[in-house]
Structures are given as structure tokens and as C-alpha cells.
Prior knowledge:
This protein is of the alpha/beta class. The chain has helices spanning 15-31, 38-52, 62-81, 100-112, 131-139, 154-159, 193-213; strands at residues 89-94, 117-122, 162-165, 179-182.
Amino acid sequence: MSDTDDTAGDSTLTTEQTLLIRQASRRLGEEFDGTFNAETIERYITDSRAKLESRASFATWLPILIERFTRDRLRALARLEVGTLDKPAVLFLCVHNAGRSQMAAGWLRHLAGDAVDVFSGGTDPGLETNKAAIAAMAEVGVDISSEYPQPWTDEIARAADVIVSMGCGDACPIFPGKRYEDWPLTDPSGQPIEVVREIRDEIRSRIEALMASLELTPA
């Protein structure tokens, strides 16, 4: 990565944040070496930053969030352009990507491990993951406390084999050739923990059925 990239000299970032984003670019360059060149990675870093930086509550963690979001997008792009299709990919979508889709993604990662690529996103991402959802998942040994709401992107949606929507309606992306499932789940926002536990358990049942249909065995 060039030290004269767009993050240098941008007054909206602290010097430390600028350094951390450059370091993230270098890590991603090493991780995707042989798959994407430095210019592609820098372009996605810059675009991911543009999609996330307006959300003030994330300011402290912005470099970390940019790196994670960019990594997800590059993983999806690799599936599309390089043909890394050795395992299925599932995208969970809801409005805020703060409760249902995070719980579903957490369950699938927990139960299927590395046998599946898991993505999640929102049509109107919230500012933080629902605390009751985090607590309910922690009760069953699934940690989603480090997850954060993010938008869905075109390359992630196109890379998914299965797109599971949870209340995002007409705002959810439609791409030919995809398998779509609509899960009518209660929104955990504002619900007491007892209700969130019921949502959590229903999501697990749906995830187990999804895994069976994809011929995925528990990790």
C-alpha cells in the first residue's frame, strides 16, 4: 500500500487511525496475496470506510470494522472472480443487522464451523448489535459480542448460494439463480430476554434444517 493513499492527511481520522487502516491494508494484502493486487484491496478499503465512517458510535473501532468489512467483501469477491466455491455461502439479511441476522450467522458459524462461508448484512444497518441478543446467545455458548451491523453489498449478495431474509421485504436484493428463504421471525429489538431466548431457539432450529438441506454436518 502506498503511504500516500487517501487516508493520509484526512482530518476526519486521527494519526493513529490512519496508521491502523494502513496496517489493515497490508494485512489484507498478505492474506489475499496471489488473489487480488494492492490496488484492488486499497479500493475496497476506501469504499468500506466510506460506507462505515459516518456512524459516529463506531469511531473508536473504525479501523477494525473497516478491516473486517473489507475482508468479508474480498472473500465474496474471491468466490465470484477466482472461483473459490469449495463450500456453500449463506447470507443472512434483516433491516438493521443487529439482532436476528447476527444470531443466525452466529449459530451457523458455531454449528457448521469452517464448512460454510457465512455473511450477514442489513438494508438499514443499526449502530450496535442488540444487547439482549448478545446475552441470549452467550447463554448457549455462542459469542456475537464482537459483531457489528454492516450493510449488504452487491458482491456479497452475488457470492451467496442461499440468501435468508428476515423482515427486510422489498429492500432485500434479488439475484437470479439464488436460493431464497424468508424466515418470519420476531424482531428482538425492545423485547424482554425471555422473548429473545425464544427467538434464539427458533433460529437454531431453522439453522439446523438449513444445514441438513446443504448437507452440512455439525462441527
